[in-house]
Specification:
The complex is a heterodimer.
Chain A (H helix, E strand, L loop, with lengths): L4 H21 L1 H4 L6 H5 L3 H9 L5 E2 L3 E4 L3 E4 L3 E7 L4 E8 L6 E7 L2 E9 L5 E9 L2 E13 L4
Parallel strand pairs in A: 1-9, 3-9
Antiparallel strand pairs in A: 2-4, 4-7, 5-6, 5-8, 8-9
Chain B lengths: L2 E8 L2 E8 L22 E8 L2 E8 L8 E6 L7 E8 L4 E7 L6
Antiparallel strand pairs in B: 1-2, 2-5, 3-4, 3-6, 6-7
The chains are: A alpha+beta, B mainly beta.
């Protein structure tokens, strides 16, 4: 039995629209291409920062608070809290100087308080740096974390 | 790989806590049995949205720990608002979870 044409066309249009809607619902997959690959594969913190922010040198700022232990027994999981009282924060980056690839996280803050927390791995005792882009200027703070057992796995 | 989300009121806004189960393999770890490196498998992007609008994007690398707990604070969240977290990794796998912020008790 032949399908009435309008039902057949309705079915085809629904299938096409359904696929289109699915693509719109997954913006993160579509934009996976804008993960800053060069910054993450950089072998030094300075190189990673150049890829993220260009050649500007961050100014040390007391307005960034990096909360991390001074000593960690296990380098596999270290909680780091970052907050700042700087205004017009655009992005915050977290780097571990002595890791094989120093850039750990880069947060683009669209509409959140200038704070985030995450857990990082440290291969060995290292300086941890936090760079904040605020009002189109760069600021930074750093702290050494001593590690008893390296945890970069 | 599950995601657990919860919220917490703080002085600087509503804190959103997201635990994302993920191996976060850096590609450096050697399998003790095969003696070869375990291929990298780590989350690259995590996006937080509030009622469908993007509020924060985390670009992450292999230096983030296994099963990371990410926290952010929302300035303008209200009871009943929907907070969604979506992640994608270097293999193209993804995950997402939505949390409705609890309504205040009367």
């Amino acid at each position: 039995m032949r399908l009435p044409r309008r039902i057949f066309l309705g079915g085809v249009l629904s299938a096409i629209t359904g696929v289109g809607v699915l693509a719109l619902l997954r913006p993160s997959i579509v934009r996976a291409a804008d993960w800053p690959k060069d910054a993450f594969s950089a072998k030094t913190a300075d190189e990673a920062l150049r890829h993220l922010y260009g050649s500007a040198i961050p100014a040390s700022s007391p307005k960034i608070k990096l909360q991390a232990p001074y000593h960690a027994n296990d380098g596999a999981r270290i909680t780091v809290n970052v907050s700042t009282t700087l205004k017009n924060v655009q992005a915050i980056s977290l780097l571990v100087d002595k890791n094989p690839q120093p850039l750990a996280a880069h947060v683009t803050t669209r509409d959140i308080a200038p704070f985030f927390s995450t857990n990082i791995k440290l291969a060995t005792t290292s300086e941890v740096r936090c760079v904040v882009k605020a009002g189109d200027k760069l600021y930074s703070v750093k702290q050494t974390i001593k590690v008893s057992a390296g945890g970069y796995e | 790989m599950a995601i657990k989300m919860r919220s917490r009121a703080t002085n600087d806004g509503t804190e959103i806590i997201a635990l994302i189960e993920h191996p976060m393999e850096s590609g450096e770890r050697v399998d003790p049995q095969t003696k070869s490196k375990i291929p990298p498998h780590y989350i690259q992007k995590v996006t937080f949205t509030l009622n469908g609008k993007e509020v924060a994007v985390f670009d992450l690398g292999a230096a983030i720990a296994r099963d990371p707990i990410l926290k952010i604070k929302l300035k303008r969240a209200r009871p009943g608002d929907r907070v969604r977290v979506v992640w994608s990794d270097n293999r193209g796998d993804t995950g997402e979870k939505e949390l409705s912020l609890p309504r205040r008790k009367a």
